[in-house]
């Protein structure tokens, strides 16, 4: 199992103010967390910071806390059903190692925390440059707690900032092929972006372009999630996929293409022929640091919205709306929009990217019934006009810009949702940045596994696709007659 911690920008500000002291002394506090459990990674989602009152701790160069403070924290954790994080600061920068006193203190706390909460103690240290380090103390035997360092600590809000533990996720080496990319934003940003584990949900016209753009940006770890099969009618819109792929799984075919074009052989591309609404797809998405939503259906969008808030994994989403004129002699209009969804940003439901009624409709299976679809009103999303490759490239480019803006924030600038109008060529950015007041997804924030238990389902269409994939084209049979015919044809030619 791998480990990580997530903090919202809001709590990061609170922690930083308390822990990084002007007098250079160390300080401490406690916080609460919920668990987010993926297939390969467990994450502590910090939900609440409980600062000490006067007399709760003694600051004397190093710092220590009193029993009353810990007792108070224990009772709040018990009431909320949360785990406990013990946090302290060091007067130096970067990922912090642990002193013998640090180890002793956390070893002493581990059994007490486990007894009160049933969860492992999470220890964290912040440096003067706001770099974090973190570890889980897991009970391995009676009275024995093993320390597991986190591979990263992620601070998420209007932007995304990660501190990596270089020993667990080493800085990648970039050869000359990436010299121009690195010259755009420097070594440090490049190694931070490149180490993000990125999931692409949907390997269609938008997802396939984004996947290649991410490989060309130097991303080291991609997860492709899609159960769909390549069809003839997809070939005018799938990046890197040709007629030989018809009948095969989109995710595998896209992976094969990316493996062909990648420069760095260490780059890992994982292809999963599942839907995000199925357990396998869902749990693999929880292992990622960022997700790209390249789906066009309400049900997967709803699941991704839940992941963005409950598990605090930012989702970059986009959508296209086009239609021809009545006589189909020209395009009537085309618009596409993109946005980053997650803590401190507006959710897909508030953005109108799906409606709960349509999620229920898709779950019922009625969207597969052609007669039922005909009965739906003309402005229903199922009647939207078809996308074309050039528009998909437009959406993919805007999603990549949202992604880079979110990670880089040049000059401290960032932006919210953007919508491009093809007819006028204008980009609209006048949208609310955060959710509506009564948005129910805000109540899910940081609840992790508790909020999404039982959310995944059996997806019959996905199962049908998997059962019918053409794995590889059957070799053409050559009859004895053809061999003899070719032999004589050859003889005649020679004569
Ligand atoms: Zn320390
Ligand atoms: Zn909302």
Radius of gyration: 26 Å
Principal-axis shape equals: globular
Report the mean per-residue pLDDT as an integer: 93
Bound molecules: zinc ion
User: CA-to-CA gap between the ends?
Assistant: 71 Å
What kind of sheet is the major sheet? 9 strands, mixed
Strand content: 15-25%
Number of domains: 2
**In the CATH hierarchy, what is the superfamily of the largest domain?**
NAD(P)-binding Rossmann-like Domain
Give a verbal description of the structure.
With 495 residues, this protein is α/β, with parallel strands linked by helices. The model has no long low-confidence stretch (mean pLDDT 93). The strands form three sheets. A nine-stranded mixed sheet has the order 9-8-7-6-2-3-1-10-11. The termini are far apart. It folds into two domains: 2-164, Cytidine Deaminase, domain 2, CATH 3.40.140; 186-468, 3-Layer(aba) Sandwich (Rossmann fold). It has 14 helices and 19 strands. The longest helix is centred in the C-terminal third of the chain and has 20 residues, at 389-408. Helix 5 (205-217) packs across helix 11 (389-408) and helix 8 (298-310) crosses helix 9. It has helices spanning 9-19, 67-80, 100-117, 179-194, 205-217, 250-261, 279-285, 298-310, 356-364, 370-375, 389-408, 449-452, 460-468, 480-494, and strands at residues 2-8, 28-37, 41-50, 57-60, 62-65, 83-89, 121-126, 132-141, 144-149, 152-156, 160-164, 197-201, 221-225, 268-272, 290-293, 315-324, 331-341, 418-421, 426-428. One zinc ion binds at residues 347, 349-350, 435-436, 439, 441.
